[in-house]
Amino acid sequence: MPRRTSVRRNTVGLVAATALLAALCVASLAIGTQHVSLSTVWQALTTTVSGAGSATGDEWIVRDLRIPRTVLAVVVGVALGLSGTLIQGVGRNPLADTEVLGINAGAGLFIVTAIALLGLQGIWTYIWFGFAGALFSMLLVYLIGMAGRASATPVRVLLAGVAIGAVMDGLGFAVRLRYPRAFDNMRFWDAGALDGRPLEVAAAIGPFVALGAILCLVVSRSLNVTAVGDDLATSLGGNVVRTQVLSLVAVTLLAGAATAGAGPIGFVGLMVPHAVRRFTGPDWRWILAYAVVVAPAVLLAADIVGRKVIAPSELPAGIVTAFVGAPVLIWLIRRRAVGA
């Protein structure tokens, strides 16, 4: 009976979170430097779906500017939420996140270098460098974290990630200063902004995010087994190596796609798992399911706040999430349970 009650509660909570995400999507289409009425939003959506007529005035703002921005926020939010949750689960590290561990920085460095040295422009040309950078930085962080005689601990991996991220951020800035063309192209991307991207960007990264989400679904059940430790998980019949390899591929796809699409946006994958775990409990299947809807809701909310906080200018969503996420990270580090 308690298990049935927990499943019912989690299901109701997931439906409520989905409704909140839908409401934030509508708000993202209506709120901005120029407010648009809900009737105009609906008219723009219907004409976009039907393909009838050309949009003018406020409808043009919704169709050509805010719909691509909102869709990109949802796709990137899903990628960030799942990648952060998966890293925390498979690595048994409550402080893990693609930004904290330097994975986003690695993807960003490879993308900036490809644009500067190879002259790549379209997302279909440099997204592959995002995957390579995410994989390279993730492997490097864990190799450094496991180096030496001491075993890899969450704190060692965290410190290695912070160090690698700082180095790669520095190299990325050096490339941008050396090649002004790359700096101009990456100016808004570098801050984690969602505006100014056509719908083709979300369409380009969407398949990779979907593939990463499928891999998360495949390993979700085994995450509950591997959470007890490698030795005990093996004795219980869990395939630890398979789970780790699939998780590595999933995080590479999710982090690389998110960084290529919107730039290095941090702390979403750190905050969301901790927030939903208080409601769902320790079952990683539920945590991953909630991350799919809660993470894009958080990113959309940050983007909406960024539009209004310094109006008529805008603050990139990546800066807003950093303002919120940095205190959360400090709070997590200071918790006695994490220290233990």
From TrEMBL:
Transmembrane segments annotated in the record for this chain: 70-88, 100-120, 126-145, 157-179, 199-219, 245-272, 284-302, 314-333
InterPro entries documented for this protein: ABC_BtuC-like (IPR037294), ABC_transptr_permease_BtuC (IPR000522)
GO cellular component, one term: plasma membrane
Family: Belongs to the binding-protein-dependent transport system permease family. FecCD subfamily.
One Pfam family cited in the UniProt record for this chain: FecCD
Domain of life assignment: Bacteria
Topology in membrane: Multi-pass membrane protein
GO biological process per UniProt: siderophore-iron import into cell
Gene3D superfamilies: ABC transporter involved in vitamin B12 uptake, BtuC (1.10.3470.10)
Presence of keyword Membrane: yes
Name this polypeptide is given: ABC transporter permease
Keyword terms: Cell membrane, Membrane, Transmembrane, Transmembrane helix, Transport
Location(s), subcellular: Cell membrane
Any GO MF annotation of the entry: transmembrane transporter activity
Keyword Transmembrane set for record: yes
Cross-referenced SUPFAM superfamilies: ABC transporter involved in vitamin B12 uptake, BtuC (SSF81345)
